Amino acid sequence: xxxIADGDLHALLDGALSLYPPDQAxxxxxxxxxxxxxxxxxxxxxxxxxxxxxxxxxxxxxxxxATLEELQARARATTPEGIAEAAARADAEDAAHREAPPGDxxxxxxxxxxxxxxxxxxxxxxxxxxxxxxxxxxxxxxxGPAG
Length: 147
Description:
By secondary structure, this protein is mainly alpha-helical. The protein has helices at 6-14, 22-34, 36-58, 68-77, 80-99, 117-140.
């Protein structure tokens, strides 16, 4: 007999081998008694089930949950108004940085300060929206995406 199929091993572990035709169940049990490889697979499956049961019985870890206000602030940050506010804050911080004298006499960098991430996110969202609209329009017109 070839090695025991995974489904038959799981049926044995589940106690469902009794639902098999008696001849087939006896054949599986006889093979298991004589095949070291299948016994090793069965033992590995039993270990896996014990480990899974231990993990599931441990429950979920206690994670700090965000407050409603924090969730609302995160959601607002993804709206056009929220992105505009973030860009305005970043612009104000950039302006304050440019106007503030260096505190330790260090030279100011002559390179242009990095752009605010909010502005880049806003520009990227506009680009994605325009590209998506163009592709959808092309597909609706039956031409498929141009390329």
